[in-house]
Amino acid sequence: MSKEQAIRRLNWATYMVDTDGKNRYPRDDVWLTDGYGDYVRHYLRAMAAQPELAPNDQNHLLRTSTVIQSISYGGDKITYSKFDAHSRERLKLGQWTPARVRGGAMKWNPGSKTLEISANEKTVVIERQ
Predict the structure, then answer these.
(1) Which of 13, 77, 101, 120 has the fewest Cβ atoms nearer than 10 Å?
(2) Which CATH class, in words, describes the domain spanning 56-129?
(3) Burial class (CB in 10 A: 0-12, 13-18, 19+), 40
(4) Can you spell out the DSSP letters for 41-93?
(5) In sequence order, what are the beta bridge partners of 63?
(6) Which residues share a beta bridge with 88?
């Protein structure tokens, strides 16, 4: 997916979102609440496909092949637990550069600030350089 396509797909997510980010209901049509399910999913998929859409000064998990049970973003490390031991994750690390990963192997791309993890344990710890 190209960056332009990713941005256009975000329009699908915002068709019933008010200027403050909450869903709006024209004529009180509450059946339009499907936007709550679509809204976040479209943004996450767009940022995972084009990490430059994610904030450059924050750390974010963008994609995973399993269910994340908990995640903690600390000043010097990110720790997350997941359902499956073997999984693949993509993160954008805008706050700092990773030095090592416990619980898997890492591939760091400093240009896009993306970290790809091939995990082999249920808990993964990413430590700051």
Answers:
(1) 120
(2) mainly beta
(3) exposed
(4) HHHHHHHHHSGGGS-TTSEEEEEESS-EEEEEE-SSEEEEEES-SEEEEEEEE
(5) 90
(6) 118
Q: Are 60 and 24 in contact (CB under 8 A)?
A: no
Give CA torsion, residues 41, 49, 98, 67, to 10 deg: 40
Residue 20: C-alpha distances to residues 24, 37, 47, 50, 69 (Å) = 10, 17, 21, 24, 29
- Predicted model pTM: 0.79
Spatial separation of the C-alpha atoms in residues 85 and 36, rounded to whole Å: 30
Q: pLDDT digit string (tens) for 30-64?
A: 655 555 666 677 777 778 888 888 889 999 999 99
Per-state percent for the chain, helix, strand, coil, to nearest 5: 30, 40, 30
Helix H or strand E segment including 119? strand 114-120
Of 51, 45, 49, 40, which Cα lies nearest the Cα of 94? 51
